[in-house]
Amino acid sequence: MSVLAAFKRHAPVAAAILALSVASAFAQEKKAEHPTSEAEIKYQAGGSPLAGVDMYQDINPKAPTMSKAEFDDARKIYFERCAGCHGVLRKGATGKPLTPDITLARGTEFLKVFIKYGSPAGMPNWGTSGDLNDAEVDLMARYVQQTPPTPPEFGMKEMKATWKVLIPPDKRPKKKMNSYNLDNIF
Q1: Which residues contact residue 74 at a Cβ distance below 8 angstroms, ignoring those fewer than 6 apart?
Q2: What are phi and psi of 178, to 5 degrees?
Q3: pTM beyond cutoff 0.85
Q4: 91: which of 106, 158, 165, 183 is 20 to 30 A away, CA to CA?
């Protein structure tokens, strides 16, 4: 194949590539000619003030938004003040259940009032007693609408790590050391 034949064969492809690159160059120059006016910048929506904040994402889209730091603070308060009555997984114990299917239906404002003022049925008045301030009451109202976090495993390995051995097993008595009738101790 001669050089001329090869040129004629590939000329349409080369022309198309050249046309696209020229059009692209003009399009880029055209964008630079029209800067955004200050009025248009003010009109456009600004960035979110929470854009740089690490957010906690609940599996339930109806749950109120919380930052990761707020969620961690609320979890600590819950385990210090609430878990004793409502349970670690919030399914209820001496206190009523606080699962999201119940708390989301009540809403944040209702929960804030309930947490702040308590109830005659035994719920402490955390806000008016001075134990929680208004910001913490709001935080807890939003927290109980989130899916409860899974508690950490506390199995036999973790339990044994907390044991204090007062008398080593090899030093313990091998025979009965008293005269009690263990069959009739009571």
Answers
A1: 66, 139, 140, 142, 143
A2: -140, 180
A3: no
A4: 158
102-110: Cβ within 8 A, 24+ apart: 103/144, 103/145, 104/60, 104/62, 104/63, 104/145, 108/64, 108/138, 108/141, 108/142, 108/145, 109/141
Which tokens go with 141? 């109202």
DSSP percent split of the chain into helix, strand, coil, nearest 5? 50, 0, 45
pLDDT, one tens digit for every residue, the chain (186 residues): 565 565 566 667 666 676 667 666 666 555 545 567 777 766 666 665 556 667 787 778 888 989 999 999 999 999 999 999 999 999 998 999 999 999 999 999 999 999 999 999 889 999 999 999 999 999 999 999 999 988 878 889 988 899 999 999 999 999 989 999 888 987
Length of the chain: 186
Q: Phi-psi region for residue 94, left (φ > 0), alpha (ψ -120 to 50) or beta?
A: alpha
User: How many helices (H) does the chain have, and how many strands (E)?
Assistant: 8, 2
